[in-house]
Amino acid sequence: MVKKHSVLLKEEKCVGCTNCVKNCPTKAIRVHQGKAMIKGELCIDCAECIRTCAYHAKYTETAGLEDLAAYPYPVALVPPSFYGQFEQTDPDRVVAALYQLGFKGVYDVARAAEAVSLQTIEFLNEHEGMYISSSCPGVVRLIKIIYPELLADLIPFKSPVELMAERVRQELEQQGVPPGDMGLFFFTPCPAKLTTITNPLGMERSYLDQAIAVEKVYPAIIKQLNQEQLTGVAGDGPVPFLGISWGQSGGETTILKRKKTNGILSVSGIHNVKRVLDEIDRNNIKGIKYLELSACSQGCVGGILNVLNPFQAKYNLQRLSSGDQQLVERNTGEYNFRLSRKFKAGDVGKLADDFDLALEKLAQLEEEIKVLPGLDCAACGAPDCETLAEDIVSGRAQRTDCIFVLREQVGKLADRMSELAHALPPVMKKKKGD
Amino acid sequence: MKEKYILEKRIEKGDFNKGGEASSKLKDLLRKLGVDSAVIRKTAIVTYELEMNIIIHSEGGWIRAAISREGIQIFAADDGPGIADLEKAFQPGYSTASDQVREMGFGAGLGLVNIKNYSDELKVDTKTGVGTKIRAIIHLV
Ligand SMILES: Nc1ncnc2c1ncn2[C@@H]1O[C@H](COP(=O)(O)OP(=O)(O)OP(=O)(O)O)[C@@H](O)[C@H]1O
Ligand code: SF4
Ligand SMILES: [Mg+2]
């Protein structure tokens, strides 16, 4: 079976606290019988729930370095944010360490990122209106599910990592490596990017084979770096420092501005992203041509699978891309930007397929909302009263799941019982003093 | 026949904090009904502009919405002061918004233009000293 999601739950650790329920941007989680449950069709793998869970009940599963053995020709694809994990070490030493670990090739996704920037500038010059960056899969999935009306505003290009992977495959084939021998490993900062391997966006299948969490390769690299005689093959040409700045929110903007493209806004953190998309929906953001959005706060350096805190990592990236760096990737012709499929809306959110039935359910929904107290306490296991009402109308929950409704009903029942208890049978006489 | 509204919301004069609530709510309701997303987008824009005009230019009023298989009707009704020159009001760039309101990003004079462009039918009834009633219809697909 193809796994649709990367964010998973360790049942034995979940205490049913509803912190994740309230913080999920798509309201995908419910607590039932003391355990959280993720509704697959709504989950965008943003990892917000992993961040909020104090009990570490949610997790993600990625490959590890041991999986290299399964491929005769394993190569590494390094995302821009990865270099932010090192305070003192420059990219070429990190690359050398990766060769030592057994990779037969190391490729910078930052190069493809530079190419995407150049292509985006061209696209923006040729098209009127406002466009949204499609490089963060968390954002693309959010738009598919909650803002389908904005799908046509997404830049219709493959993400930098897929572009790089496609190009690497071609290059390796030209070098005579049989396709069956290749193992393309990506060091992923987040579950959302991991999901795109099994569940790609805008294409039939991913060009990647495996993703390893950054935190899983990191210790091995540090060990290599500590060895004096770290020699090895350098990377494939000059370091793409500007592309590396893509690893933080605002990095794309830096490159675009250098090329005199204005009207760009960058926003990070999934809840902020929702707020800005709400404004776009109402046509209430003016003058903007391009939105750089990332689901994680601070951009990819904020991904939960990283090791360093996002602020230090962001600072480290800024150190690398300061100075008068030049773009390394000037030849966009090496890449095939076009998506093979359109981004498709998620089929979610409606109360019924039939319009009249949906209208009927909407009326019922209004009634249910009136019955509930509107406190949004989440003790019912749904994120707020309105969502519980929706679950009731669609038959997935009951009114008495609400503790206030339950209490009221118990109260009424108790009153009735006491009434009955005091209704004396006619044969009994009242006691004196009563 | 009296319309059955799926949305009925009081809009107060000068209440910028709540600007956009009616359009967000309506968008949410339409999604629950499975309405096409392009139609939702148009409806959200029209409703938002109507709502903001009540907040900015009127003494307060109501936003109401009804839906049938044919389309979505959005009604805006306010308590005055009415639009003195309708023809001018529909010209792009015409606005009587104060400097303070312009500082908040409104007053480009494009609201009514957008309302007209994004709706399929539009009817405006306005009387100076009395108020303004606008009905916008957006067809389903
Ligand atoms: N409900 C209303 N009551 C009174 N006057 C109105 C009303 N709606 C619009 N107007 C008048 O019509 C003018 C044009 O309205 P329109 O919505 O097109 O632009 P705006 O509100 O001034 O600016 P923008 O909508 O671009 O922020 C307004 O400046 C105002 O004078
Ligand atoms: S990963 Fe994000 S969308 Fe999925 S359940 Fe967790 S918080 Fe919700
Ligand atoms: Mg206006």
Distance between the termini of chain A: 74 Å
| Helix coverage percent of chain A | 25-40%
Tell me which ligands are bound. adenosine-5'-triphosphate, iron/sulfur cluster, magnesium ion
Strand fraction band of chain B?
Answer: 25-35%
Radius of gyration of chain B using CA atoms only? 14 Å
Greatest interface (CB-CB under 8 A), with counts per chain: A-B, 24 and 23 residues
Supply the number of structural domains of chain B: 1
Which strand order spans the largest sheet of chain B, edge to edge or round the barrel? 1-2-3-5-4
Mean pLDDT of chain A: 91
How many H/I helical runs of chain A?
A: 15
**Unreliable segments of 5+ consecutive residues of chain A:** none
Order of helices and strands of chain A: EHEEHEEHEHEHHEHEHHHEHEHHHH
What are the secondary-structure elements of chain B, in order, as H or E? EHHEEHHHEE
Class by SSE composition of chain B = alpha+beta
Q: Roughly how many Å apart are the termini of chain B?
A: 25 Å
Low-confidence segments of chain B, ≥5 residues, pLDDT <50?
Answer: none
Structural class of chain A: alpha/beta
Structure description:
The complex is a heterodimer of chains A (434) and B (141). Chain A is 38% helix and 11% strand. With 434 residues, chain A is of the alpha/beta class. Chain A starts with 6 loop residues before the first strand and ends in a 12-residue tail after the last helix. The mean pLDDT of chain A is 91. By secondary structure, chain B is an alpha+beta fold. Chain B has a single domain, classed as Heat Shock Protein 90 (2-Layer Sandwich). Chain B has a 5-stranded antiparallel β-sheet, with helices on one face. The two termini of chain B are 25 Å apart. The mean pLDDT of chain B is 93. At the A-B interface, helix 11 and helix 13 of A face helix 1 and helix 2 of B. The complex binds adenosine-5'-triphosphate (ATP), iron/sulfur cluster and magnesium ion. The site of magnesium ion has 4 residues of chain B, from helix 2.
